[in-house]
Design brief:
single chain, 110 residues
Length: 110
């Protein structure tokens, strides 16, 4: 079943950023990059499979990364409104338990 995961990356010098994006794309159903080294992904594969895809990128074995499942029922944060919109994205084609409702911590200032 698909779930939300966080990917944090310390990108090594010389690694092709496009290849990292392609690796994430290849294993996720959807993703959002909300800072230079942070992604939230919607994926069905186990975290080890995403790690394998990242390690297949030349040079990534000299950097650091973490792929960890997010508990969307308990959290708090300050993110741009477009990230909250992505998190609220209609995933109605999925079972109700797979698409949690997420409320932004504070209203957008836009």
């Amino acid at each position: 079943m698909a779930a939300y995961y966080h990917i944090g990356i310390k990108m090594p010098d010389g690694v092709d950023f496009r290849q990292v994006q392609e690796a994430i794309d290849s294993k996720s159903l959807d993703w959002v990059r909300y800072s230079p080294n942070s992604y939230i992904v919607w994926m069905e594969v186990p975290p080890a499979e995403m790690c394998g895809a990242l390690l297949s990128v030349s040079g990534m074995n000299t950097g650091y990364f973490l792929v960890i499942k997010l508990d969307m029922s308990d959290g708090f944060g300050w993110l741009p409104s477009w990230v909250w919109e992505w998190l609220h994205k209609d995933r109605s084609d999925l079972p109700p338990s797979a698409a949690p409702f997420i409320r932004p911590a504070l209203p957008s200032t836009k």
